[in-house]
Structure formats: structure tokens, C-alpha cells
Amino acid sequence: MAYYFLPTPHFKKTLKRLDRQAQNKAYDRLAELGENPHAQGNPLRGQFEGIKLEDWRVPRNLPR
């Protein structure tokens, strides 16, 4: 039996989270290389690490 990921709002949020994690890693790597002049520290860094999918909440205090 095949399971397909449906584009539900929950799944879209999961994709955003994974994309944010990848972006954080890219920012960190650029900062290590000294390539990123804006790398004063990513304010979103680590805020979404290690959360479970069931625990997903959209933080209200983040700038949109």
C-alpha cells in the first residue's frame, strides 16, 4: 500500500520548517567561511530544532 504526502496545511508547515533548518545550516556555513557579511547570528537559529511534528506551533512573536 502506498502512502502519499498530501499538500495539507500541516505538511506545508513541515516543509517550511525543513527549509528553514536547511537555510540555517547554509547561513552557518557561510558565516564559517566568512562569506556572509550579514551573519551577525541568525535570530531564528535553533528555535525550531528538535521539535516534534505534533508539537508544531506557529510562534506569534516572530516578524512576518
Provide tags for this entry.
39% helix, elongated, 1 helix, single chain, 0% strand, 64 residues, mainly alpha
Question: What does this entry look like structurally?
Answer:
The chain has 64 residues and is mainly alpha-helical. It is built from one helix and no strands. It has one helix spanning 9-33. The longest helix is centred in the first third of the chain and has 25 residues, at 9-33. The protein is elongated and about 45 Å long. The chain starts with 8 loop residues before the first helix and ends in a 31-residue tail after the last helix. The mean pLDDT is 65.
Summarize the structure.
It contains 1 helix and no strands.
Percentage of β-strand residues? under 5%
Structural class: mainly alpha
**Percentage of residues in helical conformation:** 25-40%
Q: Could you list the spans in which at least 5 consecutive residues all have pLDDT below 50? A: none
Mind describing the biggest β-sheet?
none
